[in-house]
Each structure stands twice: as structure tokens, then as C-alpha cells.
């Protein structure tokens, strides 16, 4: 598996797409810190990059890489290698390269300008979202044989998690505003990894007071040690379940 993962990493690095992604994040991050005297504002601006751009690039790159590697995967399947080993090697190679690009592009500037709990939370959130959406992209790619359909699926999923979901949550909360929705709101937040990341960072920036009663509720739960463990566990669940499902489908798939 390690040899396969190294080959996948070498193939990804040779394409230079990940390098361009890292350079883009690096330029944006340094620019934001240079433009903003208050580093908290720069972190808040970077938050939008982490929550929108990182999932989008992770999903699109993963999907394109999977379909471009289809012939290589077929070749590996003709060898005495298990399908689980092959797909996990592909996942590990993509995930490691994307996280490395993120750490170089965002992690380094954050550690230089804002090496505080807020900055560290931003780095861990970005890395977690990279793992999550790489898993989701692998699931969508394995399910769809056609490349265009696969890319369309991941774009729809990104659109749902980044934009549509929040609208649905607001609609639900508005429709049932006469009922106690506090605990249900926490559940809704856990059902979207993007929201989990957003809440974690915003609480570190002490803007929960601007969110009213809901913000106070988030701070009481997500700001505690239990909340941190819960957020980390949910990120792991969001990573593991799509990847496990992709493995199950890949095992039965007729290549």
C-alpha cells in the first residue's frame, strides 16, 4: 500500500495542479494578512476561503484525478492486489497531497502572523474539511462511471453543503420558531461539516455574541471540551462513512 501511495503522490506532484493550488492559497493568505492590520479580520476572511474554496477544490481535483487514473486502477486490479488496498492508496495519495498544499498555502502564513488558538483551529478545520470532502468526492466518483456525471455530482454536493443546507436550516427554524429548537439546532449543525468548521472558528473569534441566543448555545456546547471532542468525532465520521461506502461500492463494481 505504501508503494502504491508513493506512486500516486508522485503522479499528483508531477501534474503540478496541487502546487498551483498551494501557491494560490499562499498568495491569498499573505495578501489578507498584509492588507489587514487586525489579524482577526484576516482570519475571518480566510475562513471564507477555507469553507468555500477548500471543499470545492478538494472535490473537483479528487474527482478528476480518479477518472484520469481509471486505466491505472484497472491495471492494478489485474495484479494480485485487493480492491480495498488500491482505493485506499488512491485516497491516501490525494488526501496527503491536498492537506500538504493547504498547510503550505494557509498553515504557514497563519503560523507566521497568527499562531494563536484561533489560527490553529483554522488550520485543523481546513485539514479536516479536506479529508471530509475528499472522501465524499471518492464516493461520488466510484458511484458514477461517467466523468461528466461524476463532476456534476460533486458540484451539486458542494453547492448543497456550502449554500443550500444553510437555507434549509433557516427555513426549518423559521417554520418551527414557536417550538424549542435548541438541541435540534445542535443536531442540524452536526449534519454539515462546513457548519461545524464555521462554528468552531467563529467561537474562537468571540463573535458568538452577535449570533444572539443561538450563539450563546453554541458557545456553551461547542466551546467546551465536550464540544471540541464532538466536533472532532463528527469530522471523523464524515470522513469515514463516505470512504467506507466508496470501498463497499468499489468492491462490487464491475470495472
TrEMBL record:
Swiss-Prot/TrEMBL keywords: Membrane, Transmembrane, Transmembrane helix
Keyword hit for Nucleus: no
Pfam assignment, any one: ABC2_membrane_2
Transmembrane parts of this sequence: 12-33, 45-67, 88-113, 119-142, 154-176, 228-250
Entry superkingdom: Bacteria
GO molecular function, one term: ABC-type transporter activity
Record's GO cellular component terms: plasma membrane
Presence of keyword Nucleus: no
Name the record gives this protein: Nitrous oxide reductase
Species of the source: Flavihumibacter solisilvae
Amino acid at each position: 500500500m505504501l508503494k502504491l501511495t508513493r506512486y500516486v503522490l508522485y503522479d499528483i506532484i508531477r501534474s503540478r495542479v496541487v502546487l498551483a493550488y498551494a501557491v494560490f492559497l499562499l498568495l491569498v493568505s499573505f495578501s489578507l494578512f498584509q492588507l489587514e492590520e487586525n489579524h482577526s479580520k484576516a482570519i475571518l476572511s480566510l475562513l471564507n476561503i477555507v469553507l468555500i474554496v477548500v471543499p470545492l477544490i478538494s472535490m473537483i481535483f479528487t474527482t478528476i484525478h480518479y477518472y484520469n487514473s481509471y486505466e491505472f486502477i484497472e491495471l492494478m486490479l489485474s495484479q494480485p492486489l485487493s480492491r480495498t488496498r488500491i482505493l485506499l492508496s488512491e485516497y491516501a495519495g490525494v488526501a496527503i497531497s491536498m492537506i500538504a498544499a493547504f498547510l503550505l498555502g494557509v498553515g504557514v502564513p497563519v503560523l507566521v502572523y497568527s499562531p494563536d488558538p484561533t489560527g490553529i483551529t483554522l488550520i485543523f478545520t481546513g485539514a479536516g474539511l479536506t479529508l471530509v470532502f475528499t472522501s465524499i468526492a471518492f464516493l461520488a466518483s466510484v458511484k458514477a462511471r461517467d466523468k461528466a456525471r461524476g463532476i456534476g455530482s460533486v458540484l451539486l454536493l458542494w453547492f448543497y453543503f456550502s449554500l443550500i443546507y444553510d437555507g434549509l436550516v433557516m427555513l426549518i427554524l423559521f417554520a418551527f420558531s414557536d417550538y424549542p429548537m435548541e438541541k435540534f439546532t445542535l443536531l442540524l449543525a452536526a449534519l454539515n461539516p462546513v457548519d461545524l468548521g464555521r462554528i468552531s472558528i467563529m467561537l474562537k473569534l468571540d463573535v458568538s455574541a452577535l449570533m444572539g441566543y443561538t450563539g450563546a448555545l453554541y458557545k456553551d456546547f461547542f466551546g467546551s471540551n465536550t464540544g471540541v471532542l464532538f466536533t472532532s468525532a463528527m469530522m471523523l465520521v464524515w470522513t469515514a462513512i463516505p470512504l467506507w461506502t466508496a470501498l463497499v461500492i468499489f468492491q462490487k463494481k464491475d470495472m
